[in-house]
Amino acid sequence: MISYLHGKLVSIQDEAIIVDVQGIGYEIICPNPYVFQDSFNKDFHIHTYYHVREDAHILYGFKNDEQKYLFTRLLSVSGIGPKGALAILAGVNIPEFVAAVEREDDKFLTSFPGVGKKTARQIILDLKGKLTSTFSISTDETEKSPAAIVQSEELQEAIEALKALGYMEREVKAVLPQLRKSIEADMNTDEIIRKALSLLMKK
What is the pLDDT of residues 9-50, one digit of tens each? Predict the structure, then answer.
């Protein structure tokens, strides 16, 4: 198992980064590679998960141990593979996610790409009670969290509208964590789009 790598970040791609470790370039698939932009051409440390299957050996990378641990727990959910787990992690606020699992909030969970009602129920079934020992959640904060309340279809509609406007998926992914935090409970799709556009203009 390759637990982490320390080297120079030499390339950032849509789905991966390349880290030079003593002359060897490691390709590492990440939930959102562009979060590492500040480390470009610098020495940095990345947490990794080494995934082995019959036809490939793949390294996945994460900013911290919390992301990595959630990734491994998501892989334990029936029906979720690495690609699905990465899609969730690309826009996740971990305390909100854990709180949603604990309160069985399938509306919140279905706001993630590729997560339908059946998968959301499976996440709850497989992970409820298994994350709170590792991740701390604030009941008061999560109950009031706008991102946990907003209709998932409205957020999804906003994401699709941004793509229709010409924004690349990687650009949308880059602002998704901030967007989730800034959403208010009574926001409609148009208001979410405007909020997203203001975040995208700052990039």
Answer: 999 998 999 999 999 999 999 998 988 988 999 999 999 999
Contact 20, 8 (CB under 8 A): yes
Contact predicate 156/111, CB 8 Å: yes
Q: For the chain, what's the residue count?
A: 203
Domains, in order of start, for the chain:
4-62 (2.40.50.140), 65-145 (1.10.150.20), 152-201 (1.10.8)
| Chain Cα centroid distance, residue 114 | 12
The verdict on pTM exceeding 0.90 is no
CB 43 within 8 A of CB 8: yes
User: Is 187 or 59 the better-scoring residue by pLDDT?
Assistant: 59
